[in-house]
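Quick one: structure for this chain?
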Amino acid sequence: MKILIDENLPKKLKKSLQELSVYTIQEKQWLGLKNGDLIQKMLGDGFDTLITLDQNLKYQQNLSKYPIAVLLINLENNQYSTILPYLEKIKSILSGNIQPGIHTLIPPKESN
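Got it. Here's what it folds into:
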């Protein structure tokens, strides 16, 4: 599995996922690409999965026609410290048999 970390996530997330085959948008020099162009680049370069915070992606693209999985992280911001508590869950999702389509990581609601 070849995984791409979107530019809206911290680059150091890659180091936390080093046991997987992970690349960043910055490494691939794909900064600023529109979602459709990004998906085409991913397909051409053999990527299977995109990790992103882009909540609009599911509305802007018909992802069902592409053989890629999208892990959509639904957190209040893109700070590494905010993502860190969910790292094991992210690894679990990515290490499992993730299928094409959108997979959303939603943090549990805090109880009062």
